[in-house]
Design goal:
The chain is an alpha/beta fold and 510 residues long. The chain has 21 helices and 16 strands. The protein has helices at residues 17-28, 40-49, 67-77, 92-100, 113-133, 154-166, 183-193, 211-219, 236-239, 255-267, 293-298, 304-310, 327-340, 351-359, 365-379, 392-398, 416-419, 447-459, 465-480, 485-492, 496-506; strands at residues 9-13, 33-37, 55-59, 83-87, 105-108, 173-176, 201-205, 220-221, 233-234, 244-248, 269-270, 279-280, 284-289, 313-316, 348-349, 384-385. The strands form five sheets. The chain has a five-stranded parallel β-sheet with strand order 2-1-3-4-5, sandwiched between helices. Strand 3, helix 3 (67-77) and strand 4 form a beta-alpha-beta unit. Helix 2 packs parallel to helix 3 (67-77) and helix 19 packs antiparallel against helix 20 (485-492). The relative contact order is 0.09. Bound molecules: adenosine-5'-triphosphate (ATP) and magnesium ion.
Length: 510
């Protein structure tokens, strides 16, 4: 292992002697040890012979073996090798390929010396981080995660014990806690361990169903009982007979519906909307809310009698910030799941990244943490999540180092501030980087990771992915070409007529 006195070795591979010389001068000014190779073949041989350099600058266009070929040889010999590709021609394709084959970054000639140095520094830091990430070892194997709920903090251990206690009977359970703390997960776990496990579990989100429809949803209705009731409908309670019903967001339930729930609890019976028949149902109720029901009872917006009926056993889900010791385990659990689902191949987290993740306040609790891990994992280039992979808004919220990196002269694929990606009020895109600095390859977000990120973000949207991308790209290209239709249509690869049509459809002013 290296120590503080270690002088990083940087290998420059380029068939142009002048480039090797000038890059060598810039890098030696920071007392890096620079070695050179005049061709792809020679460079690959140097790496294979070892010891491997800490960083490689590699030219893409060379006689003989191309830079991209060399990159593949180098990365297969040493998957963790940090490589920065250089080119005089910035095309989307080479940039995408470069990152796809595992380059750390991609930079355009002619170089700005200051940028070269920042880039080298960042790559060397990532190199070190990746090495130290090897020190973090998950303490738990996947067997222990079979339950699907993790947490070794005393508060969570208490929650688990309570689950064990309420599974033998049909007692009503009320689960409270902030959004994303795992209320539904706990409800399912109670059901899975109960004698009703072979019967249905039905979750009803009371906040998502309009007041005038919720009764029909829960209890069913008879044909013609209200406008639009064209046939008979069997409600959730009937469907769920002998099973478990999860009334989520019960604090949002209208008062008259509350009355009917009370009747189920007291008499075990329901009536379909518009019906006269009384139907016996045997359903266990688990309710959840993130509202303060005690306050609502005082304000008479929640029935007191129902409150006491529901609140026989109360499970209070602690917010994640009150149990930071659970964070590493939850992260580990998420990563194992992502690997299992083949969504990512990252298994570790660097200590620095872990420290930021442990310090964040997580207003969205476990759901937010899960989401951030997913986003970071698809962006990570090595086998570990590094600080730079964590969305900038999290790094800034924690107030730690944000490693604001600017990739030298590279393409700026996405400027989220211009077009408003992503939609749906999703959290800020990581590409809208700090202080308006242009997001660049090497700012932690490569083209490939940008695409991965967009894939994730846009998959959740209502609009088809390509449609959305097309719109965003048209807007950007038009801006970049000052509304020049000839140039814009060329760049976009669509005919002018099509572009004009799209502009009209989108009602853009050019
Ligand atoms: N202790 C935990 N271990 C593993 N995963 C968890 C844990 N707690 C929550 N999760 C995960 O976090 C996400 C949110 O959990 P869940 O939907 O149960 O939260 P919730 O409290 O119902 O949130 P909301 O109030 O927003 O509906 C889910 O993907 C769940 O699997
Ligand atoms: Mg929920």
């Amino acid at each position: 292992m290296s120590n503080a006195a270690h002088t990083p070795t940087i290998l420059v591979i380029d068939d142009d002697a002048e480039v090797r010389y000038s890059l060598g001068r810039v890098l030696s000014s920071k007392s890096y040890r620079v070695i050179e190779a005049g061709s792809g073949e020679e460079g690959v041989a140097t790496v294979k012979k070892g010891p491997p350099p800490d960083l490689i600058f590699l030219d893409i266009r060379m006689g003989g073996m191309s830079g991209l070929e060399a990159l593949q040889h180098i990365r297969s010999a040493n998957p963790k090798q940090m490589v920065i590709l250089m080119t005089a021609f910035g095309t989307a394709q080479t940039a995408i390929e470069a990152m796809k084959f595992g380059a750390f970054d991609y930079i355009m000639k002619p170089f700005d010396p200051a940028k070269v140095l920042t880039l080298a520094e960042n790559a060397l830091k990532a190199h070190n981080d990746l090495r130290s990430a090897g020190d973090y070892k998950p303490t738990i194997n996947s067997e222990d995660y079979k339950e699907g709920i993790v947490g070794s903090s005393p508060v969570m251990q208490d929650v688990f014990k309570t689950i064990g206690q309420v599974t033998a009977s049909d007692v009503t359970v009320m689960i409270t806690g902030e959004s994303g703390t795992g209320k539904e997960l706990i409800a399912r776990s109670i059901w899975k361990h109960s004698h009703r496990a072979s019967k249905p579990f039905i979750a009803v989100n009371c906040a998502a169903i309009p007041d005038n429809l919720i009764e029909s949803e829960l209890f069913g209705h008879e044909k013609g009982s209200f406008t639009g009731a064209t046939g008979q409908r069997i409600g959730k309670f009937e469907l769920c007979d002998r099973g478990t019903i999860f009334l989520d967001e019960i604090g949002d339930m209208a008062l008259n519906t509350q009355t009917k729930i009370l009747r189920v609890l007291q008499q075990g019976e329901i009536q379909r909307v518009g019906g006269t028949e009384t139907i016996k149902v045997d359903v266990r109720i688990i309710a959840a809310t993130n509202k303060d029901l005690e306050e609502m009872v005082k304000a008479k917006t929640f029935r007191e009698d129902l409150y006491y009926r529901l609140n026989v056993v109360r499970i209070k889900m602690p917010p994640l910030r009150e149990r930071p010791e659970d964070i590493p385990q939850i992260i580990d659990f998420c990563l194992q799941n992502l690997v299992k689902q083949k969504k990512a191949r990252v298994g570790k987290v660097s200590p620095e990244a872990m420290s930021v993740l442990s310090k964040h306040r997580w207003p969205g609790n476990v759901r937010e943490l899960e989401n951030v891990i997913y986003r970071s994992a698809v962006i990570a280039q090595g086998d570990a999540i590094l600080l730079k992979d964590i969305p900038v808004e999290i790094r800034e919220a924690v107030g730690g180092p944000t490693t604001a990196v600017s990739g030298g002269g590279t393409a700026q694929p996405f400027d989220a501030s211009a077009g408003g990606l992503p939609a749906n009020g999703a959290s800020a895109a990581p590409f809208a980087s700090a202080a308006g600095t242009a997001p660049a390859i090497g700012g932690g977000y490569s083209v490939e990771s940008a695409l991965d990120y967009l894939h994730v973000e846009l998959s959740g949207g209502s609009e088809p992915i390509l449609k959305r991308l097309e719109t965003e790209m048209i807007v950007r290209v038009l801006k970049a070409t000052d509304g020049n239709l000839v140039k814009a249509s060329e760049r976009l690869g669509m005919t002018r007529a099509t572009l004009r049509k799209r502009i009209d459809e989108l009602q853009l002013s050019v």
